[in-house]
Amino acid sequence: MHWYTDVLKKYALFTGRARRQEFWMFTLFNLGIAIALGIIGGLIGFSLLSTLYSLAVLVPSVAVGVRRLHDTGRSGWFMLLALIPVIGLVLIYFLAIEGEKSENAFGPDPKAA
Hints:
Elements: H1 2-9, H2 20-44, H3 48-56, H4 58-71, H5 89-96
Helix pairs in contact: 1-2, 2-3, 2-4
């Protein structure tokens, strides 16, 4: 759970690097919470609950994605690939590959720390 809370503490931090584990664990917890809130919202008749949650974590989600791209040596602007149908699938590959093992233009290797 600390992977989720650490990303929320770095709410709008678009600089630095994020390990694969940090990104994917945040994504996993985020998905689980969104699904649970969707179910709860459906049961109580307030389906806007999961939408409000998604809006609340939009900035941290983009920020951790940008930091993850920085870890692979790419600019955060690659996050815009998600807006292009089919070609946006390349973004998943960029987010899944191992980060650079040495210091790059975006900072030191977070895995070495």
